[in-house]
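Model it.
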Amino acid sequence: MFFPKYLCMVFALLMPCIAFDSSNLKCEVCCRLVEEIQRNVSSVDPTNIVQVSNFRLDGNGDQIKQTVPLARSQLYLTEVMDSVCEKMNDYVRATFKKNGTLTVMPLLIDGKMNPLMSEVEVVQDSDLNKSLQYHCEDIVDDIEEDLINMIKSEDDDHIVHSICTDVMQLCPRKNNKVEL
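Modeled.
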């Protein structure tokens, strides 16, 4: 697609380079990673089910099989993990104009410019945001199995908190509240 790729290059020419605290950036990337995975999983028709089995046998010597939603199957989630970080190429670093808080956000949402673009200053770094994909891949490499197991458990309400704060310990807690 022409637009996002070249839009990033235009931003690179117009926006100043600012260094960010690596831990804040990793927290933001982790949150966006989990949100992308959730978006991917929720886009699958819930009536699509697959039969999965393991290597165990029941009392009759038959393989134990069960049906699970496609979006929660090991195979599907592994495929998502293999490709999800490529989407970070469509994300930019930015700071909110009102308070200077770092965010990592997509340029486009549903094919349209992100409505938050007017509320942020896009900050380009010297690597054209390739470090977003690098941090994403680093997170996936570290916790792919934990991530898949948590998503399979279907507890979507607190998964960003669980993964980015509890498991990866990338997002800080402040006064018993998580800053996401």
